[in-house]
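Hi F.,

I've been meaning to write this up properly since the lab meeting, where we talked about keeping a consistent format for the predictions we share between groups. The idea is simple: the sequence comes first, exactly as it goes in, then the structure tokens exactly as they come out, then a line or two of notes. No screenshots and no reformatting. I'm using this chain as the first example so we have something concrete to point to.
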Amino acid sequence: MAEVIDAASDTRTMNMIEAINSALDVMMARDDNVVIMGEDVGYFGGVFRCTAGLQKKYGKTRVFDTPISECGIVGVAVGMGAYGLRPVPEIQFADYIYPGIDQLISEAARLRYRSAGEYIAPITVRSPFGGGIFGGQTHSQSPESLFTHVAGLKTVIPSTPYDAKGLLISAIEDNDPVIFFEPKRIYNGPFSGYYDRPVEPWSKHAASAVPTGHYRIPLGKANVVREGEGLTILAYGTMVHVALAVVEANKVDAEVIDLRTLLPLDIETIEASVKKTGRCLIVHEATRTSGFGAELSALVQERCFYHLEAPVERVTGFDTPYPHSLEWAYFPGPIRIGRAIAKIMKD
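Output, unedited:
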């Protein structure tokens, strides 16, 4: 599926919250089967306001609040999908998605296979994830690797307003269940990792120019956000912007790839880049052990071993609960990424 933009669509400056809201609005207007559900998504418009105004526009039968029961939210969504609807349930924070994992893995991801294609689960589970906002251990987790291990699920993580809208529309239109994680640290602007500097709004970023109408960004296609010859950096979500800032600060000839979709993964773009540069650095905020970076490292080793000039490096969160008072020590920021770059370029 190639990127397709409605020719009649205007462009407007949006932050990521507005882009997500616009994607939901566009899809609800195009397809009466699209429904939104979750805790406080209706009258209140969601804890981060991503669904603001949608209940008033489309009514309480298409945008409705649920009890505080993630297992129930996902289970009901699976049933809706099996009977022809396209539900978009919101899990208020990714840290709360665990009660719904059984439904996601045992039901949603397996339904097409178990029914020999008779039933599908075209659901898109939206959820804010990641740290950088002093949310502590129960509002800062990055559980994406749990879902990339599951055959039948797709996992998507945008890094800009433009990508957020295009990827969300593709996810809703997809006939398979999609986990759509939204990096809450960059809802209102990109983050360089320099936490003591003023926040930059999305309005100063080119990717804030978002078409107001319908457009799709294909799932499974990475984006080379910076071209380079000396090093390949693989990142997604907030870490894309941190990586770019560190590369610029250290004047490194690095190619930065925004994965956008973890599963399906655009391994072809990764392989071509690493074979060109001979070096690979992987950056993610999730804990290190069994994080998605481990899978990326294995794939790069398998496909690019004879082209590597240095061992693959990873900069990640630590194998601890996400701390509150020591957030910036845990967060893979400029100092840790800079050290990894210096090491890999020296080898």
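Notes:
The radius of gyration is 19 Å.
The first strand starts at residue 4 and ends at 5.

If this format works for you, I'll send the rest the same way.

G.
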